[in-house]
Amino acid sequence: MKMLNVKNLLKATAFAFGLMAAQSPAFAADTAAANAANTKPTILLVHGAFAASDSWDGVAPILQDEGYRVISVANPLRSVSGDAAYTRSLIDSIPGDVVLVGHSYGGPVISNAATGAANVKALVYVASFAPEKGETIAELAGKFPGGTLGEALAAPVPLGNGVNDLYIDPAKFHAQFAADVPAEKARLMAIAQRPVTDFALNEPSGDIAWKDVPSYHIYGTADKNIPPAAMEFMAKRANSKETVVIDGASHVVMVSHPKEVADLILKAASAN
């Protein structure tokens, strides 16, 4: 009598169960869902100055619930060119399409990072700068009246190389940066704010992607960091596919109105 070959039996059993599973409606549905999810772009969220990655905490779960892979980038806030190169390295590491979302200073970063990147399908500007080549953030911020950031900054922190780190004075943070956010939340945001260098705010933009990549814009009428008129100007200049203006929203519109921001990102991600 031949001895039973256990290994072959296990292989045959596994094959049989696998075949049955593959033929089941549930397996087919799960596979179709997985394949559909794989065709969706990855969404990169790039925070701005005086903020951190957790500023997207209200937006990211909404995007994930719709089946998108979401990465919240830790923006260095050192220089537009350097931060764009860092972001570009992430873009290049991702298979498939990418939607780039930038808040505030993150706008120039994504504008530069996406240049020549064939897999970037859309740019979303959230209370953000969308510079032309050669423009600086400081120049755009002063182009229209209404911005009060300069008056709200704390004393510069010298870095020893002629460059300074800039913070918003914590006592002025709520009114300046996040007036439509609860006071306790704004207090914590002020503590966690990450500084930007004055060099970054005065560095001319390199080549920009919004001339070739569809852009979407959202901002609030009560923004004190970037004058709303400046954001309207930049959105029109970039031939925005859709511009959403939220009445009374502060500079951190993604914190106070995460659903509206997420909805616009989803439109950009699903557009043909």
Task: Furnish the topology, listing elements before pairings.
Layout: H1 6-23, H2 25-38, E1 42-46, H3 60-65, E2 70-73, H4 80-92, E3 98-104, H5 106-113, E4 120-128, H6 137-141, H7 149-152, E5 157-158, E6 164-166, H8 170-177, H9 183-192, E7 196-197, H10 198-201, E8 215-220, H11 228-237, E9 242-246, H12 253-256, H13 258-270
Parallel strand pairs: 1-2, 1-3, 3-4, 4-8, 8-9
Antiparallel strand pairs: 5-6, 6-7
Helix pairs in contact: 4-5, 8-9
Defining key terms:
six-stranded parallel beta sheet, 272 residues, Rossmann fold, globular, three-stranded antiparallel beta sheet, disordered N terminus, single chain
Helix content: 40-55%
Tell me the strand percentage band. 15-25%
**The CATH top-level class label:** Alpha Beta
> What is the average per-residue confidence, as pLDDT, rounded to a whole number?
89
CATH superfamily: Alpha/Beta hydrolase fold, catalytic domain
The count of helical stretches stands at 13
